[in-house]
Specification:
Heat Shock Protein 90; 26% strand; globular; five-stranded antiparallel beta sheet; alpha+beta; 31% helix
Length: 151
């Protein structure tokens, strides 16, 4: 029996410069795109918070004061299942497990709390991270939106 890939019902991709002011844009873009699922306020707030953390990590840690680009892809599947992929081509991470440890920060001098991945995991059902030093990092956020689906 062959296994067929599940195709998204709808998807959006966007790229933007790795500037801190674009974190707000990413939140608004996700919010606008997911509005077709009619999520409740709590769901939308949770998703926007997780996106904010992932995009901020890409900007602050991925590029470390260098220029770069952040890519974001949002997919909607049947039953309200969503995936949000946030990717940078920055410095990458050597030890993903260590980076995902609560309170760990690679920038203690910047008074960072080290809770980004913990927050993402709190608000999403699944968080997957792939990273290669010198090549960048990809964060995949997954969740089911319970709001009234219109698709």
């Amino acid at each position: 029996m062959s296994r067929q890939a599940v195709r998204p019902i709808n998807e959006m991709s966007v790229s933007f410069p790795a500037l801190s002011e674009n974190e707000r844009f990413a939140r608004l873009a996700v919010s606008g795109f997911l509005s077709q699922l009619d999520p409740n306020i709590a769901e939308l707030s949770d998703i926007k918070t997780a996106v904010s953390e992932a995009v901020t990590n890409a900007i602050v840690h991925g590029y470390r004061e260098t220029k770069g680009e952040v890519s974001m892809q949002v997919r909607i599947f049947g039953g309200g299942r969503i995936t949000i992929k946030i990717q940078d081509k920055g410095c990458g991470m050597e030890d993903i497990e260590k980076a995902m440890t609560p309170l760990y920060t690679s920038s203690p001098e910047e008074e960072r709390a080290g809770l980004g991945f913990t927050i993402m995991a709190t608000f999403m059902e699944r968080v997957r991270v792939k990273s290669r030093p010198g090549k960048g990092t990809t964060v995949l956020l997954e969740r089911t939106v319970q709001g009234k689906q219109r698709l």
